[in-house]
Please model this.
Amino acid sequence: MMTWSSNSLKGLWFIFPMLLVAAFVVITNPQGSIWLSTSNQYIETLNNGSSTTENQKDETQNVTKSSTAPKRYSKLEKLEAGLAKSRAAILRENKSWNNNQTEEDDQYIPHGPMYLNATAFHRSYLEMEKKFKVYVYNEGEPPVYHFGPCKHTYAIEGYFIQAMEVSKFRTEDPNKAHVYFLPLSVTMLTQFIYVVDSHEWGLMKNTAMDYVNVISQKYPYWNRSLGADHFMLACHDWDNYVNPFSDVLNWDTFAITVPVKDIVNLKKILLDIPQEKYLEMQKRGIQMRRHFEVNSPPNRYDVFHMILHSIWLRRLNFRVHDEDEF
Ligand SMILES: *[C@@H]1O[C@H](CO)[C@@H](O)[C@H](O)[C@H]1NC(C)=O
Ligand SMILES: *[C@@H]1O[C@H](CO)[C@@H](O)[C@H](O)[C@H]1NC(C)=O
Ligand SMILES: *[C@@H]1O[C@H](CO)[C@@H](O)[C@H](O)[C@H]1NC(C)=O
Ligand SMILES: *[C@@H]1O[C@H](CO)[C@@H](O)[C@H](O)[C@H]1NC(C)=O
Ligand SMILES: *[C@@H]1O[C@H](CO)[C@@H](O)[C@H](O)[C@H]1NC(C)=O
Ligand SMILES: *[C@@H]1O[C@H](CO)[C@@H](O)[C@H](O)[C@H]1NC(C)=O
Model:
């Protein structure tokens, strides 16, 4: 089931704000796998999706022909076909597109070795902006649901929940959604439900499970995918820490990752970095800063969009089937 780490939750009170961006997306599938906790490389991830691209291309064509074809395609099939098109567009080599940006000057274009594949990321990001739709369940009352504290250093959950509510990525029609958002704040759960130092994690887990029960009774979407296209935010499990946005960012080019056990040697590690390398990484770090910025309302390529993009990328990787397809 969902994993809640007492370390991660307690850690929230101390951690360095920049790392808080890692307050992260948990996909609540019944196997309990945490989506963004494996550092799949971007292209690996995409290529995996592409193994089905050929079939889906067929299907896309079939869908476009559907007005004349006898088979009627469900909303879900059309949605999946749209994703297949995005997948293909991201993977397609398109030199002219790459070198001929039509965007205006004030619009950021990802470039440089800080990205695992800047072109693919750019393309994927634009596809997301064009298509991605998120359904936010209305069930649940603030403050545990639909709300999260926004004024503290650990505010990323609350910020995302509130920004999502008014986002253009939100759809009111669950049939048009690619993913489903459980607007549940782990931080608020800890404040309202978890009795400090009681170690009653079971109570919090039950609250989240109750929520899942309610929406899986009321809507068909959870059962359809066993929750795999559902997500919620939770602070990251620090016992298994992965840098945020490792699905697109090449952290080694602009950051030094220091394992906890080496923190005592931090000064030496930092002094050992040659001046030239230091300046280069600093420059790259400044370019990467936009991806960690919290803006209200959100700006393109900022932390809100990067979290969304991680979810989008994950969603591109698998298909949801109608029940009668089985
Ligand atoms: C590709 O997807 C399959 C099944 O969806 C999974 O078992 C496999 O680990 C994935 N490979 C990579 C490289 O992500
Ligand atoms: C699309 O249609 C073609 C021919 O009409 C068929 O061979 C193919 O299996 C169909 N693809 C899918 C995914 O239904
Ligand atoms: C980046 O991704 C594109 C597909 O969008 C691919 O054609 C290209 O080979 C990739 N580049 C690198 C350096 O992997
Ligand atoms: C770039 O795009 C413009 C139209 O937007 C086109 O006229 C021009 O030929 C393109 N250049 C290249 C190198 O493809
Ligand atoms: C390449 O990109 C250009 C500009 O976005 C687009 O018009 C064209 O259709 C793309 N070509 C392919 C093969 O995707
Ligand atoms: C989803 O599955 C659960 C457990 O099997 C069941 O109780 C529930 O009624 C199902 N929901 C819908 C909408 O069919």
